[in-house]
Amino acid sequence: MNAGPADPRPLIVCDCDEVLLHMVTHFRDWLAETQGVTFNLGSHNFAEAMRYEGSGEPVAPDEIWRLLGSFFDTEMDRQHPIEGAVHALNTLAHHADVVILTNLVDARREHRAQQLATHGIDARVYTNQGPKGPALARIVEEYRPSRTFFIDDLAQHHRSARETVPGVVTLHLCGEALLAPHIPCAHSAGHADARIDTWDEALPWLLEQLGVEHQQEKTA
Fold first, then answer.
1. Which of 134, 130, 124, 81 is nearest to 105 (CA)?
2. Does 1 reside within a domain?
3. How far apart are CA 176 and CA 153, in angstroms?
4. Can you give the residue range of the structural domain that contains 55?
5. How do residues 110-159 score in pLDDT, each as one tens digit?
6. Quick one: 43 and 58 in the same domain?
7. What are the pLDDT digits (tens) for 9-38?
8. Rounded to two decimals, what is the model's pTM?
9. Phi-psi region of 71 (alpha: psi -120 to 50; beta: other; left: phi over 0)
């Protein structure tokens, strides 16, 4: 719920795939099982990472988007939570408004909300296409929080957030261990306040930023 300008709370805007739920490994497995496509997780460039098994030819960009859409239309039930993510978000929700900003088409918003609820995350979901800064700015305008925190696994979204929302606190978190070493780091680029790839470490950092004593959270 929006706390309203008379009673502002901090606001945490969090991505979903590879932050709350594993996606890319499930996508890789589905491609191999059903589409005859191999996906090399050592490359963050989808155009080079996805190739047809028989020929070794790269999958065309339009076909990559079609495959991603088909995965989200039919295979979202494969996705399972990043370790510690559900506990972390539910803990943070005691101290801040928590919403999800996910780059899916708007028609998949309800499915994403239901998917997260199934795993124990009951949060409002916003969908977006492209850079996330403008969408983040609209959410901030709606909530008018005391402070804004942004969590995402992709460096370009941190840059967009910083360019669009002054004063935003940004945490770069990629919870997929097979992918994390291969993606550009927003913290190194100067667009994130921290880079932390596990929720065991990210939760106490966020609670500290919120002014909450983490030891109290463990024993409460």
1. 130
2. no
3. 9
4. 24-78
5. 999 999 999 999 999 999 999 999 999 999 999 999 999 999 999 999 99
6. yes
7. 999 999 999 999 999 999 999 999 999 999
8. 0.92
9. alpha
